[in-house]
Amino acid sequence: MEKTRANFIEQVTETAENLDWNVYINNRYITFQWYSNAGQDFNMVISLDGINDIADMADAVYNYHESFDPDEEASYWIGDDGHGKNGAPYHLRDLLDDMEECKDKIYDLYASLCDLVEEV
To answer: Which of 6, 26, 115, 116 is the most exposed place for a label (fewest CB within 10 A)?
Structure first.
């Protein structure tokens, strides 16, 4: 079973890296890290509990995508002056575009994982 898990994690890692994600794994979580065009260090952390194959990973990434709200995420980066803070884009439109790009990137990973499931 452990070898099977290592095999599918290797496939997930390779797929993600082909989409410019960095992948970090410990025994409990897999972290997908990517830099947006605006320079955001975006991290998506998925618990490995209950993840037994590529289809499970695709489902987990899809669920993350569905719960990711670009408006809410952008709101964390808006300063008191109504503009981006802590290195976020200054203009709200640019900040929101950046968060929407992150959501699209999550979907791209999901779609690529689905392609892997179809190949298996």
So the answer is: 26
